[in-house]
């Protein structure tokens, strides 16, 4: 793999993703990992990420110079670039001058550079640093500069060591991806082999090796991750897999059918459906506190699932079900201890997920994958696009989008309004521009309206369109007025209980994406 050493900013994951986009497998490791352990992973290259520290700060992570003697190609980025310069005998100065944002860079002889090969001699790069490299280490050639940073990139082809002060992984750096690709292909001479087809083949082989001829179950939530994980396991072991779908009645319009019909048609999977709609409705009766709702839904889900697992065992005969499929993704793995430094806030335990102490061995075929890779795998496995490109949807479902107590009638109202909003966003071609757009029913609020000749006294719904990379932070999406108008007109015309549509224009923070 290409190892991305995490110096504690949010950049390591982004770098790892960009390397994957260049069809090369990458893995994030903490900066505290000893060089010997890194080398034990037989890396084809190492990338040192940016980080929030100054190399002069107390306890700032350093690079062990042994890394540069191992014959492994290394690329240092931002903090990694400075740490590299310092470790190799160059100089890093505290200029007291911050360079932040889009910055014009000069690349006078990019034609002869390995890292900057064939790039325009001037271009905009994204900077975010306080210290600067003032003197490149011996043996390095300086290949770029900016007005504030004379040494903005360097390389030593002899030892395959490279560095850039800017952030090639962010889209604001005009030719950022080319820098990474040049490093991987020409600096480190790695052939691209991380493709969706290979990922599927490799995972199928692994799953077969793990499961053998055992029996396995998978809980489908209607979401992308569990669907793709289930489809992969189905591809690997066929009928040894039974998928369980707990219909808790809190999904959006058409989503239960998507699981029960489209998913089964696409994969041929054996599906065990549990109709738990009434049970969840009873358990949620009269509850309006958000945390209480989440607890109840989590608890009921586990109980229903455990019973379903027993039913599957009974139905399948004497063979114990030994394995459980989980749709854990790589960012979850990194956030729960893979990385270091940066305070990563895990915003939610997977309510609607399963506890760790179930008596199953876990099968996690998506553990190494990022979300976009999961989607690509899903498409290649033939899953319906509507399922693969679905917006994130919370485990507790529509229950946490009804402010107030959940009732079957309120669920119906919200489902109808949500379906209209989704249909219009899709029709306007905006699905891939927004991260998600919760529609929230303010069930305990009423306001006066007028419709036809009559006065109405109905409920508002809130549209909450957000743009985000990872749901940790988000901004409200500036949707075109005509799309908003269409959604508003349709909802107030077609959903009689709703007489007002309002727009949430709060970023996260301070607002969360969901209202509860
Ligand atoms: P918030 O509302 O905290 O949401 O900004 C961040 C992201 O997480 C989703 N979300 C959940 N997902 N179980 C989940 O599986 C939950 O309980 C849950 N609560 C929120 C939310 O839709 C958004 O994408």
From TrEMBL:
Active-site residues per Swiss-Prot or TrEMBL entry: 78 (nucleophile), 167, 169
Domain of life of the organism encoding this protein: Bacteria
GO CC list: cytosol
Alphabetical list of CDD domains matching this protein: GATase1_GMP_Synthase, GMP_synthase_C
Molecular function via GO: ATP binding; GMP synthase activity
Record's keyword terms, sorted: ATP-binding, Glutamine amidotransferase, GMP biosynthesis, Ligase, Nucleotide-binding, Purine biosynthesis
InterPro entries: Class_I_gatase-like (IPR029062), GATASE (IPR017926), GMP_synth_C (IPR001674), GMP_synth_GATase (IPR004739), GMP_synthase (IPR022955), GMPS_ATP_PPase_dom (IPR025777), NAD/GMP_synthase (IPR022310), Rossmann-like_a/b/a_fold (IPR014729)
Sequence positions that bind ATP: 221-227
EC number assigned by the record: 6.3.5.2
Pfam families, A to Z: GATase, GMP_synt_C, NAD_synthase
EC class name: ligase
Known catalytic reactions: XMP + L-glutamine + ATP + H2O = GMP + L-glutamate + AMP + diphosphate + 2 H(+)
Pathway stated in the Swiss-Prot or TrEMBL entry: Purine metabolism; GMP biosynthesis; GMP from XMP (L-Gln route): step 1/1
Boundaries of every GMPS ATP-PPase domain copy: 194-390
Subunit structure: Homodimer.
Family matches, as NCBIfam families: guaA_Cterm, guaA_Nterm, PRK00074.1
Function as written in the Swiss-Prot or TrEMBL entry: Catalyzes the synthesis of GMP from XMP.
Listed name of the protein: GMP synthase [glutamine-hydrolyzing]
């Amino acid at each position: 793999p290409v190892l991305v050493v995490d110096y504690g900013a949010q950049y390591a994951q982004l770098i790892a993703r960009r390397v994957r986009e260049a069809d090369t497998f990458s893995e994030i490791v903490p900066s505290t990992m000893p060089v010997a352990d890194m080398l034990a992973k037989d890396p084809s290259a190492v990338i040192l990420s940016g980080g929030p520290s100054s190399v002069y700060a107390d306890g700032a992570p350093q690079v062990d110079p042994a890394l540069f003697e191992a014959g492994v190609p290394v690329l240092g980025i931002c903090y990694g670039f400075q740490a590299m310069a310092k470790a190799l005998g160059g100089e890093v100065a505290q200029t007291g001058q911050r360079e932040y944002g889009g910055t014009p860079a000069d690349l006078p002889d990019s034609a002869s550079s390995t890292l900057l090969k064939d790039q325009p001699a001037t271009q905009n790069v994204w900077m975010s640093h306080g210290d600067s490299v003032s003197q490149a280490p011996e043996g390095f050639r300086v290949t770029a500069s900016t007005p504030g940073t004379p040494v903005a990139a360097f390389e030593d082809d002899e030892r395959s060591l490279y560095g850039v002060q800017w952030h090639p992984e962010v889209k604001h750096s005009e030719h950022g991806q080319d820098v990474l690709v040049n490093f991987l292909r020409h600096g480190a001479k790695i052939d691209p082999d991380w493709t969706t087809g290979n990922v599927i083949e490799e995972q199928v082989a692994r799953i077969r090796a793990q499961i053998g001829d055992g029996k396995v179950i998978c809980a489908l939530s209607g979401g992308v991750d569990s669907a793709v994980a289930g489809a992969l396991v189905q591809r690997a072991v066929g009928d040894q897999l039974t998928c369980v779908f707990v219909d808790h009645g809190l999904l959006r319009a058409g989503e239960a059918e998507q699981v029960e019909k489209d998913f089964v048609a696409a994969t041929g999977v054996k599906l065990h459906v549990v109709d738990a709609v009434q049970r969840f409705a009873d358990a949620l009766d009269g509850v309006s506190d958000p945390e209480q709702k989440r607890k109840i839904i989590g608890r009921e889900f586990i109980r229903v699932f455990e019973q379903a697992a027993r039913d599957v065992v009974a139905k399948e005969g004497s063979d114990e079900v030994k394995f459980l499929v989980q749709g854990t993704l790589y960012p979850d793995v990194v956030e729960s201890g893979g990385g270091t430094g940066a305070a990563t806030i895990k915003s939610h335990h997977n309510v609607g997920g399963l506890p760790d102490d179930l008596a199953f061995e876990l099968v996690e075929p998506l553990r190494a994958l990022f979300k976009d890779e999961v989607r690509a795998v899903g498409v290649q496995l033939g899953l319906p696009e509507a399922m693969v490109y679905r917006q994130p949807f919370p485990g507790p479902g529509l229950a946490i989008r009804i402010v107030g107590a959940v009732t079957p009638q309120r669920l119906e109202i919200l489902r109808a309004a949500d379906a209209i909003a989704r249909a219009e966003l899709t029709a306007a071609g905006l699905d891939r521009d927004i991260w998600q757009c919760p529609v929230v029913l303010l069930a305990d609020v009423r306001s006066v309206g007028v419709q036809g000749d009559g006065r109405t006294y109905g409920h508002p719904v809130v549209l909450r369109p957000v743009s985000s990379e990872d749901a940790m932070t988000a901004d409200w999406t500036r949707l075109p007025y005509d799309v908003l108008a269409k959604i508003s007109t349709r909802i107030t015309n077609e959903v009689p209980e709703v007489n007002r549509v309002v727009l949430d224009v709060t970023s996260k923070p301070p607002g969360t994406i969901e209202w509860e």
